[in-house]
Amino acid sequence: VVGALQALLHSADWDVLLTLYQPSACPQMGFAVSLLLAVAEQEKARAVQISALRCLQALLLQCDCPDHHRPLDGEERRRVGDLFASFLPGISIALSRVITGDVKQGHLIVVSATRVFSRALSLVMADEQLAQIPPKREKSPPDRDSRISALLVHRSPSWA
Questions:
Q1: Which pLDDT score is estimated for 15?
Q2: Could you give the CA distance from residue 157 to residue 160 in angstroms, rounded to a whole number?
Q3: pTM
Q4: Is 23 exposed, middle or buried (0-12, 13-18, 19+ CB in 10 A)?
Q5: Is the per-residue pLDDT at 20 higher than 80?
Q6: How many Cα neighbours within 13 Å face the side chain of 18?
Q7: What is the pLDDT of residue 31?
């Protein structure tokens, strides 16, 4: 599952990939993040743990493969940061468990988990993004997306 998701993330067209980071895709993205964090935290096989962490890093559009992803522009970084702000507490807790886990788990797992944590944190908590966010966003009309909007976190300087 992890390998298939990573292959899809790397082979998808850029415009198609950015549709995953719409607020309407929050439940699906949350499921993928939860699944990858659970694999990274509970799996005993090191190769599978590292694969899950690399896939999570690719899901953040922050992977180390320059061939596959172009750098994000300002609006794309804001969109990804807005979406992942909802997942930051869970990501922080799960990755801190991975980092402080078993002493025998190996150096590469700790380094990979630390890299994913630092990139997620720097994406969500970027000062330049927080400075550009308006204090209040306009409310969308209540409809079927009201449950999805309840899942989203509104980032602001006071939130940080």
A1: 84
A2: 5
A3: 0.82
A4: middle
A5: yes
A6: 12
A7: 94
